[in-house]
Every structure is written in structure tokens, then in C-alpha cells.
Amino acid sequence: MRKENVGNNVILSGWINKKRDHGNLLFVDLRDNYGITQCIIDKDNLNFSKLEKTQLETVIKVEGKVLNRSKDTINKEIQTGEIEISIQKFTVLGSCKELPLPVFSDQEYAEDIRLKYRFLDLRRKKIHENIILRSKVISFIRNEMNKMGFLEFQTPILTSSSPEGARDFLVPSRLNPGKFYALPQAPQQFKQLIMVSGFDKYFQIAPCFRDEDARADRSPGEFYQLDLEMSFVEQEDVFNVVEKLFLNTFKKFSNKKLLFSKFPRIKYKEAMLKYGTDKPDLRNPLIINDVTEIFLRDDVSFDIFKALVKSGSIVRCIVTKNTKDKSRSFFDNIDKWAKEQGGSGLAYFTIENEKEVSAKGPIGKFFTKESLLEIMGLTGAEVGDSIFFACSKQKELEKITSLARDKIAKDLGLIDDETLAFCWVIDYPMFEKNDITNKIEFSHNPFSMPQGETSKINFDKPLDILAYQYDIVCNGIELSSGAIRNHIPELMYKLFSVAGYSELEVNQKFSGMINALSYGAPPHGGIAPGIDRIVMLLANEKNIREVTMFPMNQNAQDLMMNAPSNVSDNQLKELSISLKLKK
């Protein structure tokens, strides 16, 4: 209803969002999927007392006349704010019990109540708009993919278990007793088979199922991704498609500034050094530098770090620009915070004196002018800047410096929340060593193509082999992993043998894939950005449950539908299953 409807007799249905009783006049905010319309009824109307007693969230139908609001009562916050409906009569279409949570406001409420009564929670303005946004984003993405020549196909939900990746959800087969299907962790093998089948460009808004623990940016159980694959492509071809899609999508649905129109390519090794993570937030200007060699100098007397370096530890630092006037408590709080994260703290000093360079702070006295000048040369630090140092083994050091980089930037107000910074992380290692078992394992996707000429790959040094694997990251959130695929069976056997798989095991576990690749497979590659995480960024939400219609709780339980649930003995008998539960 708008101003042009003034004078019309109308019928309007919806939920009672809010009531305001002014004695002789009752105001009712009627809400439906499209918004809120103010309705009024005066005390002389025979329906007044009945409507006055009607519970909030009752579904009603009103009949009345559209009126202009007086100038001093116009509500510019809503689209119907210039008009109101004078109720002549109303009908209750659906009664409502006492509410377990308020619907008319977006106040924080206990998660278990919100999830148990999700159908009420979804009526609330903010989350209702998030779900509508999700629908619009998916429709837009579909249209963009179609414009770029991609065809949408659906891949099977019941498939075979995969030995790689996360834990599978298993489905017992009634017709094949003792055997199980698995719900797909991703349509990985199927989308490659689509390329082998001669289709050029595929996409799907694909449901994926992984038996993983919940996190703020990951739902337990199921999630959706934009799955895409392309034949006869190299890495840059995939990047060009995804960048075009993301730029168009985020320009359409977000008012935030895009920091890069061409997404930076950052090598994995460089990302781990400069940012301490392969999910860098490029809104943050702080850079991590390796200064291990400084602590091998004779004129540096910081003996704690020197001893650690001699035993195999490394030292990295973070420079903060022009922080000479920060209070001692600022620096000490950062050091205290680092210890709370499980680290040994962060040592620090501030560079002083333009003419005769020196360092002020707890460890400043351990450095000579010459060593300070070398640090300044290595890091780009200047007089007036402060430097935080951490020393540890590489993995622990990367973790604490990555966290510290984010913490310091937030404390200094360096991150602009109104910007979006996309980047690609490339050149992942094909393999990594398991710290516990000491065995060589695939670091990413086992079906990825290694870099370099096949005949020149040194399989005796597997940790040096790089792959055409890549991640797309935005504001420190990984949106997707992808790769150019290995389409050569002989090369696949070699790579799997490095990870401890025999040719027989590969044939058994990946029979469909290996068989298909033996019948003329094109070079192909793809990626699968997470729909949930894309909508999270667009909706400016921190938790994935705020953009998911019916999410589970942290324990992978659907409180609304009481899932998972017990099943009857007859159902188990049909499936040839007996239960032996742990005490």
C-alpha cells in the first residue's frame, strides 16, 4: 500500500506485529513478507475490544479504507509510512499461543530457543531479510553463470564413501544389506566426470554433507556451494570467471568498497610469512617480517631469543607505524594477550632519535645502533615506529603472529569495516608431513595437477612439489578452494604412491574416476565458493546460522524437528542393522 492507494477499500492479511492502545484509538502494525502497514481502529467500532485482546503474532485479515497519515505522523523508516488503513472489520485466520520469544524486535535471544522455534525466529526483520537476500543472491549467481555459458546439472546425493577429506554421513542400503551409501562431501568426482563426458562448463548450487564440528563460519552437517568446473582451462581462466562473478555479485548486493578490482595473487609460502596464515585479511596493512638473522649478530644481547634461535626457533616481527606516543599499557596489554593465547608473549621496543638511533622499551637495551639500522632495513621501520617480536618453532610462530597481526590492527583501528578485500592464495604444496605420524600426506585436494613438466617432477622430494591449487579469500574468510585437476592416470598413480596408496587401492577407492580418465580426458579445473559464506559477507553477519534457514545447533541437532532421533526396531531390521551403543 502506497500514497496512490489513498481512498481505496482494501483487504490486507498478515501477522499482528505490534499494538499501541491510545484509549479511543488502537494502532495495529500488520506484517507480512513485504513489510509492515499501520492499521487503526477507533473505540466506536464493534471489533475494537476483540482486536484489543488479540494476541501478538495472530494471523488476521482486515478490511478497511486507505487514508493519508497526517504530516507529523509520517514514518519515513518504512515504505508504507505515508498511509494507514482504517479498519472496518477483521477476521482471525490463525490464532497464536503465548510467544516463547519476541518477534517484533531483533534483540539477542538464547540460541536454543531461537532454533527450537525457528519458524518464529525467521519472522524477525533482520533474519527474514537475510534469508530473502540469500534467495536473491542465488538467483543472481544462476543468471550470471548462464550468461557466461555454464550449464546447470544435478549430481547424485547417494554416492560412495570417500577416503579423503572430512568424516562422511553414511546411509545404509536396504537392497544391499551390510553396504552403505555416503552423502557427498562435495560433487568433486562427479563434476570431473561431467568434463570427461564432453560438457564444457558446468555449475550447480550443490548441497554438501560433512560430519564436522560446528564453527561460526561452518554449519555442522550440511552446507551449499557454487560448484563449477571448466574444460580446456588453466588457472587464470578459472580466476577470470570467479572474479567477474564476485565483482558483479558484491557490487549488486553490497555498498562496501571493493579494495581490488583485480584480485591479488599471493603465493602460499609468501602468505604464511607475511600474514602468518593462508587466509589473509588484506584490509589490515600490517606485515610480518622474518628477522631471525638479527639474533645471530654478536652485538645483539637478547639472550633468551638468541638461545632459542640456536636451538632451531625463528623470530618474526610486526612493525606498527608512528606509535611512539602510545602508552605503556597499550604495549603491555598486547604482550599479556599473546600469553593468554598460549604463546610466550610479544617482546617490543620503539625506535627513537633521528640522529643517534636507539630503542626504548623492555628489550631496547639489548640492541646496538647498527643492529637497529639492520632491523629497519629489513622491515621498513622508521623512527617513531614500534616493533613486536615473537620467537618459536615455525607453526606456533605463524599462529601467534597471525593472531597478533589482527589483534594489533583492531586495537589501532586500522581495519576499515566498509571495505572488501579479495585475494587468491596460490602455489600450495602438493604434500605435507603429518607431525604425529611423520607420514607424507596430501595437503589439499589429491586430484590436483602438480606444477611443472611431468617428466621433471622429483618424486623423491615430495614436499617441494607445488600444485595448481588455489583458495579465494575475502577479509580473512576462506570462501573456497579449487584446483586444476590431474587428468593423467599414470601421474595420479605416482602421486598417490607418495602418500602411501598402492595402485590397487587407488583403483578400488577411485574406480569411477581412474576408469573415466583412461578414455580421453580433457585438461580441466574448477572451484566451489561457499554460498553460506558469501551471504554472510553480504549480510555483514559473523555467524553462519544468521543466513541459514533451518540450521542445527553446535551439537549437530535440529531442535525444531528433534533430529537426529531414534528409529524403530522394525526399521533397523529392514536395514539388517543392530545397534551396540557405547556405555
Question: Can you lay out the helices and strands and say which pair or pack?
Answer:
Elements: E1 9-21, E2 25-32, E3 35-42, H1 48-52, E4 59-68, E5 83-94, H2 111-116, H3 118-121, H4 125-147, E6 151-152, E7 170-172, E8 180-182, H5 188-196, E9 201-210, E10 221-231, H6 235-253, E11 257-258, E12 265-267, H7 268-274, E13 288-290, H8 303-310, E14 314-320, H9 328-340, E15 347-352, E16 358-360, H10 369-379, E17 386-392, H11 394-411, E18 419-420, E19 422-426, E20 431-433, E21 440-442, E22 469-474, E23 477-484, H12 489-498, H13 503-509, H14 511-517, E24 524-527, H15 531-539, H16 569-574
Q: How does this structure look, described?
A:
The structure is a single chain. The mean pLDDT is 95. The longest helix has 23 residues, at 125-147. The strands form six sheets. The protein has an eight-stranded mixed β-sheet, sandwiched between helices. It has 16 helices and 24 strands. With 583 residues, it is an alpha+beta fold.
Main features:
five-stranded mixed β-barrel; alpha+beta; 583 residues; eight-stranded mixed sheet; 24% strand; single chain
Counting DSSP H or I runs of 4 or more residues, the number of helices is 16
Average of per-residue pLDDT values = 95
Number of E-state strands: 24
Coarse structural class: alpha+beta
The radius of gyration over CA amounts to: 30 Å
Record the strand order, biggest sheet.
6-9-10-24-23-22-19-12
Strand composition percent: 15-25%
Poorly predicted residue ranges: none
Largest beta-sheet details: 8 strands, mixed
